[in-house]
Amino acid sequence: MIRSSFTGFNTARLGLMASQNAMEVTGQNITNVKTTGYSRQRLEQSSLFGSTNIYNKVSDAHIGYGVIVNTVSQIRDPFVDTRYRLQMANLGEFDKKLSILNDLESHLDEIGGGKDALAAQLSDFHSSLQALQNSPGDVTMDNAVRGAAKSITEYLNLYSNQLKELRSQMEGGLSRDTDDINKLLSQIQELNISIMNSQANGLPALELQDQRNLLLDSLSTYGKISVNYTSTIAPSGASIDTMTLNMTMSDGSSVNLLKGTGTPAVFQLQTSADGSLRVDITPGDGSAKIEGAAFSAGSFKSTLSMLNDDGSFDGTATHGIGYYQKSLDEFARVFAKTFNTLNNLNGKLAGKDLFTSSDGQAINAGNIRITEEWMKGTIRITGGAAADSPAGDNSNILNMISALTGSQTFTDGKGGTVFKGSFQECLEDFRNILATDTKTTESTMKNYLSIVQDIASVREGISGVNLDEETANMMQLNKAFTAAARLMTTLDDMLNSVMGMGITK
């Protein structure tokens, strides 16, 4: 049985249409080579084979009917996307922590140990005491000691206020982060609605999927997320993808953030009874609210840790901002108690305190100051170590010098020792911990950054637009289009030959 005369023409026509559509997809790729988040597209097509003709004989060759264009799809690798987002959570965690540590360093210039640092003021205090021991009772020398002591209290006040300001900034930043993640989830939900509506109408909505992928990448810096897609067939026959978005907690459990077009999860920043901050999550699937979510990675984990963990003071591994605040408070407390006790000759004298608080509360770094009596000169440094010491006795001043350079015990306020050593050594330990934490965090962050960059490079190689490849595709598609057109012309010539058979002039 002879195939229909126009079957070949239809085959050529379909080839022309397929080549033209593929050329349009290539043009779309080329024009979006610089578009952020754009995924390379390709035309999905398959060979068209019609139903068997009842008149065909067994010996007839079964020839196809051309090519059919199915859809346009994105070139993406879900496994690479998963790896990228998991590593982005790790990078987000240490990048945020490093940022906070850098802020601590900028607020606490103890790292530099320059002439204006607290350690330098402590050295001035030591030098002025040494000068006073040579001239006990000298008003000028006593004023020099008082000036150095005043500088120490002012620096402690300054650092304490700066840490309070930094904490306030961090809390504000965490509040903004919770607002941002809620906005991201709402935007992803809106895109899910648009994508599913488009797919139901037979449209792939690839550009909308690109926008959603960008939002998912941004979301991954807050915590470890997992994204899964399930396909269902609509009544129209179209395939619809439903996205399920979860976040993994530190215990391995998953919290649903969003499913398809459903209600997204809600993040809320709350203050616990002990004054610590926490992030509560109301899951998107309607399950019970999670109070104080324990994040396994991401910026939420590091920010909460740096705000709530006090290191040696609460037995946690992280030296958060509370550690540095409490270290300064303990330094101020021990410093004031040591010199007040010595100037009062261990209780033998009364009204000889050199340091007090500005608010009537227990002395800490934020409220320590020198007493009004010392400021006015109504009391001075006690020279002798006994209540009846003769004029010119400097034994108590020597005790003060010894106390300044000797070992002191700094506690956590609950009976535990957090450091034992001199005041200078305490500051040195304080500096070393901050410097070590910063260096370690920076090194870890750079490692994760390298991993993310490597995965991003792989992902770009898969999903990014390569102009060389697209140019080669254009040349190939142009040849295919020309060949299909030539096929149609040849078939036309053949048909003309058949139609002209038997015609005589």
TrEMBL record:
Supply the Pfam families for this chain.
Flg_bbr_C, FlgK_D1
Domain (Flagellar hook-associated protein FlgK helical) spans 113-355
Q: Which cell locations does it reside in?
A: Bacterial flagellum; Secreted
Does the record's keyword annotation contain Signal?
no
UniProt keywords, alphabetically: Bacterial flagellum, Cell projection, Cilium, Flagellum, Secreted
SUPFAM superfamilies, sorted: Phase 1 flagellin
Q: Glycoprotein as a keyword?
A: no
Q: Which domain of life is it from?
A: Bacteria
Domain Flagellar basal-body/hook protein C-terminal positions: 463-499
Q: Which family does it belong to?
A: Belongs to the flagella basal body rod proteins family.
PANTHER family per the UniProt record, alphabetical: FLAGELLAR HOOK-ASSOCIATED PROTEIN 1
Designated name of the protein: Flagellar hook-associated protein 1
